[in-house]
Amino acid sequence: MNATLKDVAERAGVHPGTASRALNPATQGLVSEATVRAVQQAAKALAYRPNPMARGLKTNKTMMVGIVVPDLSNPLFPPIVRGAEEVLSRGGYTSIIADTDNDARREVDSIAALRARQVDGLLVASAHREDDAVTSTVAEGVPLVLVNRRAEGAAIPTVASDDRSGIEQAVRHLVGLGHTAIAHLPGPAWLSTGFERARAFRHYMAELGGDLSAELSEECGTYSVAEGARAARAVLDRTSPTAVLAGNDQIAVGVLDVLRERGLRCPEDVSLVGYNDMTFMDKLSPPLTTVRVPHAAIGVEAAQILLRWLTVGPPGASTVTLPVELVVRGSTARPRTR
Amino acid sequence: MNATLKDVAERAGVHPGTASRALNPATQGLVSEATVRAVQQAAKALAYRPNPMARGLKTNKTMMVGIVVPDLSNPLFPPIVRGAEEVLSRGGYTSIIADTDNDARREVDSIAALRARQVDGLLVASAHREDDAVTSTVAEGVPLVLVNRRAEGAAIPTVASDDRSGIEQAVRHLVGLGHTAIAHLPGPAWLSTGFERARAFRHYMAELGGDLSAELSEECGTYSVAEGARAARAVLDRTSPTAVLAGNDQIAVGVLDVLRERGLRCPEDVSLVGYNDMTFMDKLSPPLTTVRVPHAAIGVEAAQILLRWLTVGPPGASTVTLPVELVVRGSTARPRTR
DNA sequence: ATGAAAGCGCTAACAC
DNA sequence: GTGTTAGCGCTTTCAT
How high is the pLDDT of residue A322? Predict the structure, then answer.
């Protein structure tokens, strides 16, 4: 059905080996101009497409990379994936996306499946802070770069955004507005984003004189609307913050629901800040003040590092931290004077 | 690095051919129980993973399928992809997602790239009503099923939702509320969803006695917030509908923006209905009345058809139409009596 | 029940 | 500059 290299060679009246050289830009110089033309013409005539499996079998490269994400339905990840895919495909690589459904076991399986597929490298956006699947894969010498989330232990190239700065901007904004009783609903501590942001929160609250009572803080088990709502109820049941800093936008949406359910107005009664600036966060009521993360850029950057690794060689433990920016919208205001 | 079948055979003290038979469920019966056990044990000990390229080269199957989507960042598609991937991976297939960025040329490229990769089949969610890339691929005998959008010409297996019914429910709802001047902002007519819904709209408006003046209708060039806003402005500049039926939720969001910008309240002054029920449409202000489409189910169903095609054989031109359901929320109300 | 051997389509080391 | 040859890891006849 599909033409093979042998067919092309035959039609051009040369040996398959010669045809191979003529078609490969790197070895093209070893062949006379005339033959190159003849072979290329034959290839075009037969609509020849090299068989990547045969080539891969020989070269031990698949020209495929795996992209592991925790949840493709989370609006956070498609831009990362697109940015990465764009770069990768320009570099001649095909990407295979695996969705772990936020499940550590499925992450193990996904990485295993991708490796069985012989991918040349991996982009992992689903890493936990202590992630055996990732560290062992890296230990075996597989090119892998972490995206969006960091992992501890081995020095793995990572592209993420500046969580400290994001939290600093959020806290400064809130404190600047006059808030001190600021509740924090961080994401899970086993994710670098949850952990780092919580740490940064404590740091800047201390520095700026905010209230650090334990009752103002409630960790979310997942980055979800439901968990955000649960955590919001827990905090509101025991105290009365004038502002809430949510671990991410989904959590913030859950908070918004609970605020409404309890007859608290946002931002008049309680100010709210999210994190990520997902699609449509500007369409909520009120439009959400949140920290904008350059997701596409993260994907692009990570893909570039991986690409360089695949072509040039292993990077020095390069960690790229992209800047973030607080987007002030309608969900934050001065606290009411009582 | 990775163990090969030869390694396994050696360790088990048998010939590679025998090891192959022992490991393959289909041929396992041809081998003595004892050898099967010995080989399997050796395989486990060496953490043997068959090399899919070698296997594929021999069997002429890659066990990969391509999934072509117009835009992964559109919340519509991740659920479709996930549903499909789930089914496919259970069937032993790996999926490769290609994003065409809503660009017909890139769709051609994507399909070509996927085919060059020798995928065993294709799921295409990006089809236009007249889609040469799709029809020619099908003509060449490549297993392909259309998802979400239909194409004309060849009888291609398709899984989509019931656009007529969705529009019928929306129009009945609006007319039932007392609206007659209902604006329609359909998606592009070169997409089956845009075309079919527009046709259904005219059909049911005629049947139910709605106003079908041309000035009430404005086609959107893309399914986007910006186009929705543009179309809304165009219509509002020339007439005063009491309700708007948007081609999809993104268009509806654009309409909402324009309504606000013009000081029109929703639903008091203008009712609004979307289509798809994307994530967070219930969090808009007002919560959007929209037609819920079972996206995950569409992906699942399509993957099952493809899987059957790949394993059993070509389906009779099976077209599956999944039911949809109008979700009434806060964006629709009776028109004000004037 | 198992071993032997050929070959999938391609690349690369080695002739000439 | 081009032909020859071997072999990547696997499956699958064909013998035995």
Answer: 98
Number of independent structural domains in chain A: 3
Across the interface, whether the CB atoms of B79 and A56 are under 8 A apart is answered no
> Is the same domain home to A42 and A78?
no
Are A79 and A142 in the same domain? yes
Q: Is A53 in contact with B75 (Cβ distance < 8 A)?
A: no
**B252 and B271 housed in the same domain:** yes
pTM for the model stands at 0.94
Q: Which residues pair with B123 in a beta bridge?
A: B67, B145
Residues A186, A267 within the same domain:
yes
Residue B194 has pLDDT above 60, yes or no: yes
Domain that holds residue A11: 5-49
Please give the helix or strand (H or E) that residue A116 lies within, else none: helix A104-116
pLDDT tens digits along B207-230: 999 999 999 999 999 999 999 999
Q: Are residues A220 and A189 in the same domain?
A: yes
Cα angle at A75 between A72 and A79, to 5 degrees? 85
Element (H, E) at B123: strand B121-124
CATH number for the domain harbouring residue B113: 3.40.50.2300
- Tell me whether residues A94 and B85 touch, CB distance under 8 A: no
A71 and A154 housed in the same domain: yes
Q: What's the pLDDT at B252?
A: 98
The whole-angstrom separation of Cα B185 and Cα B275 is 11
**B24 and B89 together in one domain:** no
- DSSP letters spanning B58-106: HHS---EEEEEES-TTSTTHHHHHHHHHHHHHHTT-EEEEEE-TT-HHH
- Whether residue A336 is contained in a domain is answered as no
Contact B250, A44 (CB under 8 A): no
Residue-wise pLDDT tens digits, A120-162: 999 999 999 999 999 999 999 999 999 999 999 889 999 999 9
Cβ-based neighbours of B74, under 8 Å, separated by 6 or more:
B223, B250
Interface of B with A (CB under 8 A): 1, 49-54, 56-57, 62, 72-73, 75, 78-79, 81-82, 85, 89, 94-97, 99, 113, 115-118, 253, 256-257, 279-280, 283-285
On whether both B128 and B200 belong to a single domain, the answer is no
